[in-house]
Amino acid sequence: MDPIQRLRDDHIRIEESLKRLEALLRTVEEAEPQISSLLKELRGEIDGHTYREDCLFPMLASRVGITGGPVQAVEHDHDQVEENLSAAEAAARTLARGRAAEDGVVAVGHTFVDELRAHFAREEAHLFPLADKLLNMSELRAVAQQMEEEQ
Predict the structure, then answer these.
(1) What is the pLDDT along the chain (151 residues), one digit of tens a residue?
(2) Which H, E and C letters describe the chain, residue by residue?
(3) Is the CA virtual torsion 111, 48, 92, 38 positive or negative?
C-alpha cells in the first residue's frame, strides 16, 4: 500500500474516533466509562499512526532538512498531541470527583480534538504533498516496508 495513503487513511479512521469523543463530551455525566475507553482506543490508533509517520519522516527530512522545516513543525505537533492526549487521559481519571472534573474533561478533551485536527490538516496540506513530490517509488516502497514491519 502507498505509505502516504496509509497515513491519510489513519487520519480518516482517527477522525471517526474524534467524532465519537466529541459526542461523549456533550454527555460527559453519562459517558464516563466510554470516554476512558475511547481515549485508550485513540492512544493505540495515534501510537500506530505516529510509528508509521516515523518511518516516513527521516527520509523526507533528508530531502528538505529538519531545522525549521515542515518535518520539524509536524514533529513538534506530535509533542503537543501527546501532551494533550495525556492531559485528557488524566482528566478522564478524575471524572468520579464531580462537576468540576467533568468541566475539566470537556475542556481538555476539546483541546485535544482541536489540536489533533489542526495537526492532521498541516500534514495533509504540506507534508504529505511534499512527500509525494520528493520521494521516488523506491523510497516510498522502503517506507511502506518499514511500516509493515510494525504489524
Answers:
(1) 799 999 999 999 999 999 999 999 988 877 878 898 999 999 999 999 999 999 999 888 888 877 878 888 888 889 999 999 999 998 888 876 666 677 888 899 999 999 999 999 999 999 999 999 999 999 999 999 999 886 5
(2) CCHHHHHHHHHHHHHHHHHHHHHHHHCCCCCHHHHHHHHHHHHHHHHHHHHHHHHHHHHHHHHHCCCCCHHHHHHHHHHHHHHHHHHHHHHHHCHHHCHHHHHHHHHHHHHHHHHHHHHHHHHHHHHHHHHHHHCCHHHHHHHHHHHHHHC
(3) positive
